[in-house]
């Protein structure tokens, strides 16, 4: 984990992607989903980085709690629907079947929410706005949820 001290009580953590920010403030890991242009939807870059940061911060003895929030006016719109049709790995990879895509998404979501549930420190979801689908799962997996008046939660399949 690469860290840069800002002040005596604030440290920025390198998450490996601009889509996720992490800093330690007074023993609280503030983890920010940073895709406001996409309502902080979970992309193929963001999801593994978030899983890694949850695990690393959960194991860090200098961290007493984890707070997850979203940049801009949304918490998380769920999975990145625009990116769901992409192929895994290289462009030479075979196209996935619908069943394989669903299984891959289920595994990613299970391991992400599982990482949150397994943290032995308090976890807080700070919702500046909507949480939908997988974003709702993230919020529910936290021990505590705090929401702005403009926030709401929804399942991804309400209009199906």
From TrEMBL:
Gene3D superfamilies: 2-enoyl-CoA Hydratase, Chain A, domain 1. GO terms for biological process: fatty acid beta-oxidation. GO terms for molecular function: catalytic activity. SUPFAM superfamilies: ClpP/crotonase. InterPro entries: ClpP/crotonase-like_dom_sf, Enoyl-CoA_hydra/iso. This is Enoyl-CoA hydratase. The lineage of its organism: Bacteria, Pseudomonadati, Pseudomonadota, Alphaproteobacteria, Hyphomicrobiales.
């Amino acid at each position: 984990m690469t860290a840069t001290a800002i002040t005596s009580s604030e440290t920025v953590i390198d998450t490996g992607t601009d889509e996720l920010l992490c800093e330690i403030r007074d023993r609280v890991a503030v983890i920010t989903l940073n895709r406001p242009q996409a309502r902080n939807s979970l992309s193929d870059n963001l999801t593994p980085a978030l899983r890694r940061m949850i695990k690393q911060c959960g194991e860090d003895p200098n961290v007493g709690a984890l707070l997850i929030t979203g940049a801009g006016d949304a918490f998380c719109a769920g999975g990145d629907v625009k990116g769901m049709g992409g192929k895994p790995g290289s462009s030479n990879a075979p196209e996935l079947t619908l069943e394989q895509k669903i299984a891959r998404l289920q595994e990613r979501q299970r391991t992400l929410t599982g990482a949150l549930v397994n943290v032995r420190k308090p976890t807080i979801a700070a919702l500046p706005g909507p949480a939908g689908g997988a974003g709702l799962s993230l919020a529910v997996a936290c021990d505590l949820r705090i929401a702005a008046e403009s926030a709401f939660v929804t399942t991804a399949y309400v209009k199906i």
